[in-house]
Specification:
403 residues; nine-stranded mixed beta sheet; globular; disordered C terminus
């Protein structure tokens, strides 16, 4: 019984730390650094304005081509210093032909479809600028995004800059949209603090940039290209910085089913990334970066989902021993768990009937996130995750609000 009690409290601490405690600790560390006058922003050469390449890998994205090209041409950056490079390998919807009609757009196409990573590896070989910016075809960039990214590259210690992912939301949003939007708001704040402490732990694939000289070819079966690319830059001694003023906007997943499909792929990629970035677990070599990596990513992708499952029967056993309806600490915590997962279940029930009750979207989305970890782990172990584009269906981009 004593062993179970120790296990329960350790597990509860790890779960709390993974989702909230690390954020609280980061906030405290940042406040302390500011009080001590540490970590002042690097200004550098304000005239720094290098040539950049916007690299877009796209498979059958014809519906987004015009909007993406025009969006890129309207960015607040000298157009004579901005090159658009599209790699459309495997596309058979006419998007390569359509792209070739636009002046100033470089299009590289191969009929063979080898997946996004192969297209990225091939695309970088056509980059002749010191900075390469990666972006998705189905996202729109904020007008000043490139200027805001380049500001941070003034610091020679910065090897990668991540923009912010924003989600289009509607007043009557679904659980996927509301949950995803809230999740990215929280993640955005953590990234701000991570960057101020030392380095962001992974870039957002919708918009991130690296110094071209730091590019390292990625294994073709990689699932989370943005994460692997950015962390390998950091492992070379550079930092990943974050600027929320550089942002990419995309619609939320069409529904929870589509969001779950996307999350499963990310979860499988998370397991793969932890295995491939094993050296980054070495505190003695990577110090603060290892601390941030384990706290922000590794725990969420490995230990915490398992503990969330194990803590339920352990809590029940301890509550039953204490007296389930005597309202002791264990019974109280067990009833809280029951209430939380009941709320998630009700959220699922209402969502399937198109009834919107946003207070239930948070437990529902949290449940979906962790369910995806189990399904993603199973998929990774089976080795049947395709490296080809597997884009989740998105809700339409109308007159909505970015969150």
């Amino acid at each position: 019984m004593e062993f179970l009690a120790y296990f329960f409290w350790i597990a509860l601490f790890i779960i709390f730390y993974s989702y909230l405690g690390y954020g609280i600790l980061l906030f405290a560390l940042i406040k302390l650094r500011r009080l001590l006058g540490l970590g002042k922003p690097f200004t550098g050469n304000e005239d720094y304005e290098p040539e950049v390449t916007l690299l877009i890998t796209a498979h059958n994205e014809k519906d987004f081509v015009h909007r993406k090209v025009e969006n890129s041409k309207n960015l607040e950056y000298p157009q004579n210093k901005l090159t658009q490079v599209w790699v459309t390998d495997g596309s058979n919807d006419g998007s390569p032909e359509l792209l070739r009609k636009y002046a100033g757009v470089q299009v590289y196409h191969s009929d063979e479809r080898l997946g996004k990573i192969a297209a990225m590896n091939r695309g970088v070989t056509f980059v002749n600028t010191p900075i390469v910016i990666f972006s998705d075809a189905n996202t729109e960039l904020g007008r000043n995004s490139i200027k805001e990214i380049i500001k941070l590259f003034r610091n020679p210690k910065v090897g990668c800059v991540s923009g912010e992912k924003r989600i289009y939301s509607k007043d009557a949003d679904n659980a996927a949209g509301a949950g995803e939007g809230l999740y990215w708001k929280y993640e955005s704040q953590l990234k701000k603090w991570d960057a101020e402490l030392y380095s962001v732990v992974g870039a957002a694939g919708e918009l991130f940039a690296i110094r071209t000289e730091l590019w390292q070819e990625v294994e073709q079966d990689t699932l989370l290209d943005d994460f692997i690319i950015s962390l390998r830059v950091a492992m070379k001694g550079y930092t990943i910085q974050y600027n929320p003023e550089a942002y990419a906007i995309e619609s939320a997943s069409a529904d929870v089913k589509e969001e779950l499909k996307r999350k499963i792929r990310i979860s499988a990629g998370g397991i793969q990334s932890v295995l491939r970035l094993r050296p980054l677990l070495n505190f003695f070599k990577y110090g603060t970066l290892s601390f941030q990596y384990i706290s922000h990513r590794v725990l969420r992708w490995t230990l915490t989902p398992l503990l969330l499952l194990l803590i339920i029967p352990v809590n029940f056993f301890l509550a039953n021993h204490e007296g389930l309806f005597d309202f002791g600490i264990y019974s109280f915590l067990f009833l809280c768990q029951v209430a939380f997962y009941t709320a998630a279940l009700i959220g699922w029930f209402l969502e399937n009937r198109q009834i919107r009750l946003k207070i239930l979207f948070i437990p529902y989305y949290f449940f979906i996130m962790n369910l995806s970890m189990y399904l993603g782990f199973r998929r990774y172990m089976k080795g049947n995750q395709s490296v080809n584009w597997e884009r989740a269906k998105r809700s339409g981009m109308g007159p909505q609000t970015a969150t």
